[in-house]
Amino acid sequence: MGYYSGIAEGYDQLHEEEQLKKIKILEKEADIKGLILDVGAGTCIVAKYFHKKGKQVISLDPSQKLLDQGEGAAILGKAEKLPFKDETFDTVLSVTALHHCNIEKALKEIKRVAKQKATIAISFLKKSSKLKEFEKMFKKVFGEGKRIDEGKDIIHVKN
Ligand SMILES: C[S@@+](CC[C@H](N)C(=O)[O-])C[C@H]1O[C@@H](n2cnc3c(N)ncnc32)[C@H](O)[C@@H]1O
User: Fold this and answer.
1) Range(s) of the domain holding residue 22
2) Cβ within 8 Å of residue 116, ≥6 positions away
């Protein structure tokens, strides 16, 4: 059992408040529109937040145990091989998850499943050794966007 599956039932109690702060920054800085994909969704904190605002979110995560704590449409899968057709989503979000992934594969997959004019907003763990690679690759794949220092994360937004 992976780390996150092991703490699945207590995850929201441990992390929801902290993650909600990041989500509120995403909401302010990013044009959150249409069909939304949340990559590395965990317990679907993003979906729970945006459902209340009438938005449609598909949550994707490799941990069924975490997804089971969530709500709405949830798909088991990994960022490196997204089980969706090209140009499906109007918005792709990811909150403190991509440091677990192969950065290049994950960002290219996000680009593939996002529509041409989609909003991309990714909150990335600042202390990860992959931060530099992520920032370089984000710029290469999505172009120049906004960069927000959140505290524990760096948030990149391309509207
Ligand atoms: C710190 S948690 C964040 C969860 C959620 N985004 C939140 O803000 O509460 C990191 C998440 O990344 C997921 N994860 C790990 N490897 C992944 C991969 N290859 N693709 C997508 N998500 C992955 C974990 O299962 C876990 O749910």
Assistant:
1) 3-158
2) 87
